[in-house]
């Protein structure tokens, strides 16, 4: 006689709770069941026969796998709703000591998860600026660095010369909450930054001093709004039909690393987190280890 699957039993218990306590419609219950059984199959393939309070990285990896299988953003968000409901139920019932899905936020306004660019779409976008003018040299370096390091747009435009360590292959970033991190940048970004610093920045400054790496006319730093306009223009020039934002490149950075096989904890370390509770679940990874992971797994490392 086949032993009952403990994880499937927990899923059945959750579905029964939704039926009896919440009174959800049959179609909704069936959708929850399908999504959770698919998650259970993912856990089994990962060598995890059940669930635990330390499953946050697995939940994130499941979302990445769903995207790789062709599921759209709304379908992936629906999966996350089901998984979060399941873990929340287990924590409330004291079947788990904590809910690992609480660290993964759903967008507040809609059930959509950020889309990402393919590696080929990123290549077209990064090749869009013309290198014949100082502005184009600057823009090429900005786009390359944004994707190479997974920066927030505020981190990119606020970058200072003292934060760039090209010999070591790192930039030092001041993230949210005044939290510093060192992020490897890879060969392509290093080369474009070197070219910009040598051939573009001085022409834009016109002998005016500035502590900022990326400058506009009269030596002023590029603003967030100014960069957004540049990004939209280059997305159009690259023939990208998607709505591109700076976060699209940040999300693409993380997704491409994970799809390439990079360790999730290292990717989280490179991205940084505003919420300390989120970063505390991941172990610290030394800078040299981060650089090696970036070199091996980033498409432009």
In short:
This protein has two domains: about 5-105, DNA polymerase, domain 1, CATH 1.10.150.130; about 120-295, Orthogonal Bundle (hpI Integrase, Chain A). The chain has a three-stranded antiparallel β-sheet. The protein contains 14 helices and three strands.
CA radius of gyration: 22 Å
CATH fourth-tier homologous superfamily of the largest domain: Intergrase catalytic core
Largest sheet: 3 strands, antiparallel
Q: What structural class results from the helix and strand content?
A: mainly alpha
- How many domain regions? 2
Summed up, the helix count is 14
Uncertain residue ranges: 107-112, 273-286
Give the CA-CA distance, first to last residue: 52 Å
Q: What order do the helices and strands follow?
A: HHHHHHHEEEHHHHHHH
* Overall 3D form: elongated
Overall mean confidence score, pLDDT: 82
What is the CATH third-level topology name of the largest domain? Answer: hpI Integrase, Chain A
Q: Level of helix content?
A: 55-70%
What would your notes on this structure say?
With 301 residues, the chain is mainly alpha-helical. Helix content is 56%, strand content 4%. It is built from 14 helices and three strands. Strands 1-2-3 form a three-stranded antiparallel beta sheet. Helix 1 runs antiparallel to helix 2 and helix 3 runs antiparallel to helix 4. About 7% of the residues have low confidence.
